[in-house]
Prior knowledge:
single chain, alpha/beta, seven-stranded mixed β-sheet, 7 helices, about 35% helix, binds guanosine-5'-triphosphate, binds magnesium ion
Amino acid sequence: MAQSQEDYDYLFKIVLIGDSAVGKSNLLSRFAKNEFSLETKPTLGVEFACRTIVADNKLIKAQIWDTAGQERYKAITSAYYRGAVGALLVYDITRMASFESVGRWLSELKDHASQDLVVMLVGNKTDLHNLRAVSTQMAKEFADAHKIHFTETSALDNKNVESSFQQLIDNIYQVLQKKAVNNSDSSTKDQLSVDYKLKANQKDKTLGKKDDTCCN
Ligand code: GTP
Ligand code: MG
């Protein structure tokens, strides 16, 4: 029987951002469907996929949005970020330019996303270690300076992909818990959990193809 929309405790909207060809879509397909493609197929418009995982004994449905890194769809920017509670900011460890863009992506988040948004910086393509141009240490220092999380992955080798998403979701969950503690009144807590469902649920019908395998 198909799962109903309510078969989860929380729905988290997570956005993938970063320059073109850093591997955003492959990280998503690896996480959502355990698929990888060597072909270069730039994303057009917005797509999303979902996966439900467990954090702190709660079922959390991650609804992950993916868009093109290069073309700037200015008209959809605010809709893309609206309601997002987490972001994976991806660069390619073999391309310094993609790391140099990270600051620009962070400003875009600052301009368009919620202040509570949890950001994870992801250096992808660690399988290409002979071509590495961005050192782990440099990226780690950058992440520490900007108080964001950091990890390195290979979508091709399926290395660290699962744990990066899991870590991001755990961190979002902690932010949610902290908010609940700060608002210790129980009615506020209930309201908060509703907010986290609704916030992530605000799908703009003008956007995106819905993946058949997910998101109902
Ligand atoms: P846009 O949609 O244009 O923004 O690009 P993207 O960031 O979604 O990149 P995409 O996932 O399409 O990957 C771009 C290219 O990098 C493809 O040829 C992938 O096969 C390749 N690629 C993605 N991840 C990895 C990886 O971990 N290792 C290696 N070696 N190649 C990868
Ligand atoms: Mg893509």
